[in-house]
Design a protein that fits this description.
Layout lengths: L6 H21 L5 H26 L2
Helix pairs in contact: 1-2
Length: 60
Amino acid sequence: MKKPLSRSQCVVLTLLWASICALVFTTAARIDGPLIVSILISGALVFITVIRSVKSWKNR
């Protein structure tokens, strides 16, 4: 298994995801279904990685 993310990496990854989401929502001409689905999928990819890393910290 790969080495888990550090706490600072998790924070930076989450902040970058949130800033990109904010940028997309503020510049989008329309907020429609495909946009919402893509934001949810990207959030799932980011937060699954972060949650796995947090769980591995607790197992140490």
